[in-house]
Amino acid sequence: MVRKKVSVVVPCFNEELNIEVLYLGVKEHLPEQYDAKFIFVDDGSTDGTLAQLKKLKKNRDDVFFISFSRNFGHQNALKAGIDYSTGDCVISMDADLQHPPKMIPLLLEAWEDGYDVVYTVRNDKGNGAFFKNLSSKMFYRLVNMLSTTRIEPGAADFRLISKQVAQQLSKITENYLFIRGLIAWMGFSQKSIEYEPGKRFSGKTKYSFRKMLRFAAAGITSFSVKPLRISLIAGFVIALAAMSYGFYAIYAALFTKLALPGWGSLIASVLFIGGIQLMVIGVIGEYLGKMFIESKRRPNYIVKETNIEHDK
Ligand code: UDP
Ligand code: MG
């Protein structure tokens, strides 16, 4: 029987102390009928990540790496790993062991059952990360309200995809990648599995509040033009209200003795409308800015060094 090949893709941004532990953890849990091939993507790390990868690669023929010219971000690193993978299926996971390697047999089982995408959903109960849980809940609620593609709350970038899905995903070259959303959008037969996230093994989180906000903006504006429509409707409703108020003011001046001093309401309505206008322009600007960047058709990442021969 031919042994099936599994590509394991791991984005790494300053993860020097995690790489080997993750490698050994995955090897330990991978069922023996599979051959694993690891693709570590060094996303412009400034610590010893690349050196560590080269060290790990020595005497091992299942370790591969891609090193970027600078930090291109988690989603682009993930994309690079998928682009370079050749396995019958691709498993992507974080370097910090928050995605427990012991789940891998379950992912593979579901794949053998015929699913093309097996994604995992974080079980947030009792992990104490109050802010992260709350922001993640709000984020998914907002995304699902605004978008036509439903993303399961808590979905993680710890997943298995079949070769066919990986090849299709490689063809997508948009700049603001939100891979979870793309995978949900792509269809195929999908299954979700719950997992208990582990503690980060070493180092600290690379998702600063700013990166999280940027990620959230990509998630919302990549999958929906509804915010544009909402601003249109809001503008219309407010304009209508302002107009009726104008008519009332004329009526009051002509036919009643209520000669209104009216300063307060005047200023309030001017500022209110001004604020709404700025907001609407902001939403339009967000989309326009994205179009500006996308129209340049720049690559998602630049590879400085790799030990993978690639002909795509
Ligand atoms: N990561 C990356 N580039 C970045 C930020 C993060 O490749 O710019 C990687 C990181 O090394 C890790 C994964 O993405 O393997 C998830 O990041 P992290 O654990 O810091 O995020 P958190 O789990 O705190 O959301
Ligand atoms: Mg993490």
What's the layout of helices and strands?
Layout: E1 4-12, H1 19-29, E2 34-42, H2 49-57, E3 63-68, H3 74-84, E4 89-92, H4 104-112, E5 117-122, H5 130-146, E6 155-162, H6 163-171, H7 179-186, E7 190-195, H8 209-221, H9 226-255, H10 263-295, E8 303-306
Parallel strand pairs: 1-2, 1-4, 2-3, 5-7
Antiparallel strand pairs: 3-8, 4-6, 5-6
Bound molecules: uridine-5'-diphosphate and magnesium ion.
What does this structure look like?
- The chain has 312 residues and is of the alpha/beta class.
- The protein has 2 domains: 4-205 and 299-306, Alpha-Beta Complex (Spore Coat Polysaccharide Biosynthesis Protein SpsA, Chain A); 226-296.
- The protein is built from 10 helices and 8 strands.
- It has an 8-stranded mixed β-sheet with strand order 7-5-6-4-1-2-3-8, sandwiched between helices.
- The protein is elongated and about 95 Å long.
- The protein starts with a strand and ends in a 6-residue tail after the last strand.
- The relative contact order is 0.14.
- Magnesium ion (MG) binds next to loops.
- Secondary structure class reads alpha/beta
Number of domains: 2
What is the chains' assembly state? single chain
Shape category = elongated
Count of DSSP H/I helices: 10
Number of strands: 8
Distance between the termini: 29 Å
What CATH first level of the largest domain would be assigned?
Alpha Beta
Strand percent estimate: 15-25%
